[in-house]
């Protein structure tokens, strides 16, 4: 259908087809049909890819021209500050957010099979999402009864759930839409900023069970900066470490206060997260338990100016029943990577390649330790679930609620 998202992944494949044989074997048209070389059609792959992209964007612009953000009659829907209600009023920004969502959600697969909007409010994003994806596989989560009523009236087919976004059972919702073992959900939302971190941590937990594939969400600019922060910067902290282990993160663009009503006092950013999924996550953690990682991160970043030796000493004393000698020997250890991680590193895996702790790790501050190294630091303090032969122990659960218990902002 003309409303199908552009199959970016398929276009990637399409390039691959050309590069391996230096001749074009096939191409994909806008409606998802393949045409094979055998059909007698030979095209310039890059030109065709560009043509398809341009055409899709042109159609998108045309289609969205008819849309305007919902106008609320005065007195009908007074924004509540306590619920973080800052409504989008600019259709161009709405289009850009939804376009970024489509890209994030189709990075590893060609189509979106289940989507969830967090906090639809009066429906600025909802309207465009329905026009692109329909209502069947779409769920909205909203705590404000007024919004639920408004959306029910406007889109009777749409499933709007009147509930707290922090109580969503994502694995259950995924099963409901896509069945057992189906694709993870794609999440979108202009979030209520007062619970941003908690929402994100709940998504990380859900990704333990492959319930979430991607999230494209607005947040306060500074929080977004923390998610994508590089090592040794002021913004680097728990959010950076967790989400750079659990996902690929990207800052799509900055959003000024002027496109919201009422105008927030801060700049916003649209962040895209593509969760790596259970299999890659298990490989990255290689037997380390997420709840232990959480403890190490909390202890070290609580005292971000202190070196790791000092901030972990108390924790180690507790773990090692007060045996100061053992604590010293851990703090002086030069740990090797587990064989499975070393193998990945030697094969060029970008994450594993930087996973080994440096010699002077104990003298470093937490902001100097990269996300992969935090996994090794946790292994050192708490051990892991690896068996004799180096395999991951049976019964090794990633966990249901691990991250979401963290206090907001830490
Ligand atoms: C920033 S507004 C976005 C509204 C709309 N999507 C837009 O872009 O114009 C955040 C929305 O989240 C809703 N909300 C706030 N706290 C919530 C919670 N705990 N659970 C579910 N929804 C919540 C608010 O009622 C509001 O509609």
From TrEMBL:
Molecular function GO labels: RNA binding; rRNA (adenine-N6,N6-)-dimethyltransferase activity
Residues reported in the UniProt entry to bind S-adenosyl-L-methionine: 86, 88, 119, 142, 164, 190
Keyword Nuclease part of the UniProt annotation: no
Residue intervals of the Ribosomal RNA adenine methylase transferase N-terminal domain: 93-277
Keyword S-adenosyl-L-methionine in record: yes
Coiled-coil region: none
Keywords: Methyltransferase, RNA-binding, rRNA processing, S-adenosyl-L-methionine, Signal, Transferase
EC numbers for this chain: 2.1.1.-
PROSITE patterns from the UniProt entry: RRNA_A_DIMETH, SAM_RNA_A_N6_MT
Enzyme's top EC category: transferase
Family, similarity comment: Belongs to the class I-like SAM-binding methyltransferase superfamily. rRNA adenine N(6)-methyltransferase family.
Name of this protein: rRNA adenine N(6)-methyltransferase
